[in-house]
Specification:
The protein is of the alpha/beta class and 162 residues long. The chain is 41% helix and 19% strand. The chain has helices at residues 15-25, 47-57, 73-79, 92-108, 128-136, 147-157; strands spanning 3-8, 30-36, 64-69, 84-89, 113-118. The chain has a five-stranded parallel β-sheet, with helices on both faces. β2 (30-36), α2 (47-57) and β3 form a beta-alpha-beta unit. The chain binds adenosine-5'-diphosphate. The site of adenosine-5'-diphosphate has 16 residues, from α1 and β4.
């Protein structure tokens, strides 16, 4: 069985992430969405909220699983027999950081391969932080996130679109 992990903060999951997962799911038997439990990032949504949002989106897709993990991705993948990491590439600006991460992971776990999937053109400028900024000021986030995530964003910021 070909299993790949798609790691990230997903704070919150956007349509850009969903697009990468849908496309990766065509290449692998199972996609494990790994939410990185990183205290330093001070996320807007709790781990449980992020897990629930993603589970609801992929509830009909038995090939997608959601987990959270702590520590190094290289260790987690080794312990769970996962040999492929999926990452999305939006712009050249993503590349240097992603390349550095891929090389570091390879050093730590020689069996691990990183597969980059280019973002769909429409989502190249889309990020979780951009969506949060929009929601904070009551902007329309519906083109970028699912309805459930949009509602959760407006609730979190106590803002309503006028
Ligand atoms: P991280 O905190 O690791 O950057 P993110 O949740 O922001 O986590 O992103 C996880 C992965 O999804 C990264 O590979 C990132 O480049 C990719 N990604 C984020 N937004 C998009 C998008 N709009 N289109 C394609 N890939 C994306």
């Amino acid at each position: 069985m070909r299993i790949a992990i798609y790691p990230g903060s997903f704070d919150p999951i956007t349509k850009g992430h969903i697009d990468i997962i849908d496309r990766a799911a065509k290449m692998f038997d199972k996609i494990v969405i790994g939410i990185f439990d990183n205290n330093q990032k001070n996320p807007l949504f709790s781990m449980q909220q992020r897990i629930n949002m993603i589970k609801n989106i992929f509830k009909d897709n038995t090939h997608v699983e959601v987990i959270c993990f702590k520590g190094l991705l290289a260790d987690f993948t080794r312990d769970n027999n996962i040999s492929v990491v999926i990452r999305g590439l939006r712009a050249v600006s993503d590349f240097e950081y992603e390349f550095q991460m891929a090389l570091t992971n390879k050093k730590l776990n020689a069996n691990l391969e990183t597969v980059f999937i280019p973002a769909r053109e429409y989502y190249t400028y889309l990020s979780s932080s951009m969506v949060k900024t929009l929601a904070r000021y009551g902007g329309d986030v519906s083109p970028f996130v699912t309805d459930e995530v949009a509602t959760a964003l407006y609730v979190a910021y106590g803002s309503k679109r006028c």
